[in-house]
C-alpha cells in the first residue's frame, strides 16, 4: 500500500510538517505502508496547458508518475486568501482525473485564521468528490499557534493527526479487502 503525502506549496514549512506527521503515524500503525513525500518545493513543475498528461517531461512527468502510482493520498496546503494554493490546483489539473478514482484521500491545511479550516470542507472535499475519490471523514487543520517554530506541538492537533492516519489505513485496508472479495470498482 503506497501512501503519498503531498505538500502543495512552494513556500513555508508548516504544511510540510503536518503532512510528514501523518505519514509517520500511518507507517507506525501499519507495517505494509510505503510512505512517500511529494514536496512541491523540490520540483519545477510546468503549468497545465491542456495537453495529455503523458506528454509532459522532466519534473512535471516525475510528479504525475508519482501521483499516479499511489494508492492513498494525504494532501496538504496552506490557506492563502481564503483558498488552497495555485500550486496544488495546478498539480490536480495536471493529473488525469481517472488516477484518483476509487482511491482514498485525506486532507491537511495550515493557516493563520481559525476559520480557514472551512477551505477543507468547502473546497478540497468537493474536489475529491468530483474526482470520485473516497475522502477520510476527518482532517487536520493547524493554526499558526499550534506550532513552536516549525514543530507541531499542540496535543489536540497531534491527536487529530493520529486519527487521520488511522482512518486512511482503515479505509484503504477495507477497500482493498472488498475489492478482492467483489472485484474492482470501475
Radius of gyration over C-alpha positions, nearest whole angstrom: 16 Å
Secondary-structure-derived class: alpha/beta
Helix fraction, binned, reads 40-55%
Put simply, the count of helices is 5
In whole angstroms, the N-to-C terminal distance is: 19 Å
CATH architecture, by name, is 3-Layer(aba) Sandwich
Number of domains: 1
| CATH class placement | Alpha Beta
Rounded average pLDDT: 94
The dominant shape is globular
- Series of secondary-structure elements, N-terminal to C-terminal: EHEHEHEHEEEEH
* Extended strand count: 8
Protein name: NADPH-dependent oxidoreductase
Keywords: Flavoprotein, FMN, Oxidoreductase
GO molecular function, one term: oxidoreductase activity
Domain NADPH-dependent FMN reductase-like: 1-144
How does this model look, in words?
The strands form two sheets. Strands 1, 2, 3, 4, 5 and 6 form a six-stranded parallel sheet that branches. The chain is an alpha/beta fold and 186 residues long. Helix 3 links the parallel strand 3 (72-78) and strand 4. Helix 1 (14-29) crosses helix 5 (155-182). The chain contains five helices and eight strands, in the order βαβαβαβαββββα. It has a single domain (2-176), classed as Flavodoxin domain (Rossmann fold). The model has no long low-confidence stretch (mean pLDDT 94).
